[in-house]
Design goal:
This protein has one helix spanning 43-46; strands at 4-5, 16-22, 35-41. The two termini are 24 Å apart. Helices cover 6% and strands 24% of the residues.
């Protein structure tokens, strides 16, 4: 996984990046071959619009499964 700088959607963002990451749960994508481009921005810019529709996720859920 490598982050690539990208053009921010507006001047309200300080930094913006993309990364190609595996999508789905381990059961849906066990080998991690199905990737999707995910957009990231700096934390300070993520919710700086102060609007109810301007929400962000600050963590990624991790699927817990049986140990190998």
């Amino acid at each position: 996984m490598a982050f690539q700088p990208t053009r921010a959607p507006s001047e309200d963002f300080w930094m913006a990046f993309t990364a190609s990451l595996p999508v789905g749960s381990h059961h849906d994508n066990p080998e991690g071959h199905i990737n999707e481009t995910i957009h990231f921005c700096d934390y300070a810019s993520a919710t700086n619009l102060w609007q109810p529709t301007n929400a962000c996720r600050v963590w990624f859920p991790i699927e817990l499964g049986p140990a190998d």
